[in-house]
């Protein structure tokens, strides 16, 4: 497989040739050119709590080892999620806020209001629908000819699921994916490439659509319809969130959070799982021979892929970590992608080992009060996808190195050509 490095892209230096203090782990090219592993390896070994005094995102600390990340993530009294959890600072002209970017008590109230949408009872009810949808997607794929797995499968499935959990008009579901990409794709947030005007228009469109949906649902409840188990209806019927529509920055922010939460992450895990089975063909053989390994493989893939590379915090007081003094007000970035490659905690971390013991002990869902709300839903989608793939195909062959997203936040793929071999 050949890495497609475009000619006008900067060519990154060897990670070991740079002065340590100049290493910039927020450079999105590390991710789009798939060079992040070597850079993080060096910092993990030589300067695990690393300070960069100047970057496009301002000065920031990088936390790169597994145990240090857990220590920061579980200490929300010192490490605040406010005002935002991506390395960049939000654009002040688009005022949004959401519960992933809030500390207690507001965080806890708003999370509690929507949590039941992914309660075990609801997930069990969703299982058949997810299987039906993934089956329909897989049955329509071209066999024996190359096509893009990202748009045909990963995006299609996640947009259908999002439309379901929001009870959003099904035929307009692709808008959800587009809005999500726009929400995280700003250069100042993640080093992405979304243009400000397009981004603004997209987010505006999102607010208008959801406002209409919110009002329609409220009207139908008033007319006597029972409460649905979709996110909007749950928010409308909960005391802490029922008037969210009157607080536009929270309304837009929380909906954006749920769209982004359920979109890029699952999409990139699905693509990453196919890539991993190609990079580690012995593991693919093991999986074909024993499909009971799928649930463990799902956790291993989510670790290996780490769909969100980082979350950031702000120190609320001076605190020492790894022998360094983090000052009140400093920006602290927990690099989950690096912690998940920390050989101090995970044996052979660069390898995908689908029957790895304790595979669920990874950082991809975070730790502490903000631990991913949709983790079981994400895992379930991936599990069902693989159960259905193995029923139909002997091989999903990746034809060339995928194109990767230009972002230090979303660790994923924009396209990946594959060819299917049906089951003999
Ligand atoms: C929070 C990753 C799927 C909704 C998070 C966090 C991470 C994450 C890293 C922040 C954790 C922290 O700060 O400690 C992932 C990954 C997924 C996934 C890797 C799939 C493989 C989903 C899905 C949903 C979702 C399907 C949709 C319901 C959320 C929400 C939060 C969150 C609402 C905020 C929780 C809070 O602040 O209390 N996720 N996520 N996620 N995720 Fe996920």
TrEMBL record:
Its EC number is 1.14.13.151. SUPFAM superfamilies: Cytochrome P450. Its cofactor is heme. It comes from Zhongshania aliphaticivorans. Belongs to the cytochrome P450 family. It holds the Pfam family p450. GO terms for molecular function: heme binding; iron ion binding; monooxygenase activity; oxidoreductase activity, acting on paired donors, with incorporation or reduction of molecular oxygen. This is Linalool 8-monooxygenase. The keyword Iron applies. InterPro entries: Cyt_P450, Cyt_P450_B, Cyt_P450_CS, Cyt_P450_sf. PROSITE patterns: CYTOCHROME_P450. Keywords: Heme, Iron, Metal-binding, Monooxygenase, Oxidoreductase.
């Amino acid at each position: 497989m050949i890495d497609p490095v475009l000619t006008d892209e900067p060519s990154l230096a060897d990670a070991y040739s740079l002065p340590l203090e100049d290493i910039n782990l927020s450079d999105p090219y590390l991710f789009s050119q798939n060079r992040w592993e070597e850079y993080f390896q060096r910092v993990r070994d030589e300067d695990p709590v690393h300070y960069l005094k100047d970057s496009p995102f301002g000065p920031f600390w990088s936390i790169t080892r597994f145990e240090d990340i857990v220590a920061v993530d579980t200490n929300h009294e010192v490490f605040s999620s406010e005002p935002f959890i991506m390395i960049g600072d939000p654009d002040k002209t688009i005022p949004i806020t959401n519960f992933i970017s809030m500390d207690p008590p507001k965080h806890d109230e708003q999370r509690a209001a929507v949590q039941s949408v992914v309660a075990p009872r609801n997930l069990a009810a969703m299982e058949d629908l997810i299987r039906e949808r993934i089956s329909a997607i897989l049955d329509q794929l071209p066999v024996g000819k190359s096509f893009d797995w990202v748009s045909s499968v990963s995006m299609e499935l996640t947009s259908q699921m999002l439309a379901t959990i929001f009870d959003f008009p099904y035929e307009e579901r692709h808008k959800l994916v587009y809005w999500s990409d726009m929400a995280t794709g700003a250069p100042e947030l993640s080093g992405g490439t979304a243009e400000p005007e397009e981004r603004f228009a997209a987010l505006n469109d999102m607010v208008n659509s959801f406002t209409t949906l919110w009002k329609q649902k409220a009207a139908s409840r008033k007319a006597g319809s029972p409460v649905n188990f979709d996110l909007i209806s749950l928010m409308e019927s909960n005391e802490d969130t029922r008037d969210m529509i009157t607080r536009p920055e929270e309304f837009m922010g929380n909906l954006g959070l749920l769209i982004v939460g359920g979109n890029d992450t699952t999409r990139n895990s699905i693509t990453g799982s196919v890539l991993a089975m190609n990079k580690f063909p012995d593991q693919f053989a093991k999986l074909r021979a024993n499909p009971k390994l799928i649930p463990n493989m799902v956790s291993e893939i989510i670790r290996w892929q780490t769909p969100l590379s980082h979350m950031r915090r702000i120190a609320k007081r001076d605190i020492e970590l790894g022998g360094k003094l983090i000052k009140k007000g400093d920006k602290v970035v927990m690099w989950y992608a690096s912690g998940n490659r920390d050989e101090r905690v995970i044996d052979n971390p660069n390898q995908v080992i689908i029957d790895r013991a304790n595979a669920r002990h990874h950082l991809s869902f975070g730790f502490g009060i903000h631990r991913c709300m949709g983790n079981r839903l994400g895992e379930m989608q991936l599990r069902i996808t693989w159960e259905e793939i193995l029923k139909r195909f002997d091989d999903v062959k990746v034809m060339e190195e995928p194109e990767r997203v230009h972002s230090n936040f979303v660790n994923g793929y924009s396209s990946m050509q594959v060819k299917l071999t049906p089951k003999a």
